[in-house]
Design goal:
The protein has 94 residues and is mainly β. 0% of the residues lie in helices and 41% in strands. It has one domain (22-91): OB fold (Dihydrolipoamide Acetyltransferase, E2P) (Beta Barrel), CATH 2.40.50.100. Strand 7 (65-75) and strand 8 (81-91) form a beta hairpin.
Length: 94
């Protein structure tokens, strides 16, 4: 004999996997060549010194060194100033 009454089917319960976006290396941390610094959708953070942007807007290091983030005022398309964040890698002195 059943212990629960007929439950029926539900239309809930479908959800997509998380994409694991965000900052992977923070300011002051050491990055090796090819290390991912930020995974993002769109260029919220831009590539600075010794950093390149992949086709999915991922920022990665092209030189080994310390990660830092800087902010700079740039003009947008209409000439309005906008505060933009850059990811940089300062090469380690040998």
């Amino acid at each position: 004999m059943a212990h629960t009454k007929a439950g029926g089917s539900t239309r809930l319960g479908r959800d997509s996997q998380g994409q694991r976006l965000g900052t992977k290396l923070y300011g002051g941390e050491f990055a090796k060549v090819g290390n991912i610094i930020v995974r993002q959708r769109g260029s919220k953070i831009r590539a600075g010194l010794n950093v390149r942007m992949g086709k999915d807007d991922t920022l990665y290091a092209v030189a080994a060194g310390l990660v830092s983030f800087s902010r700079k005022k740039l003009e947008n398309f209409h000439g309005k100033p906008k505060l933009v964040t850059f990811a940089n890698v300062t090469p380690k002195a040998k």
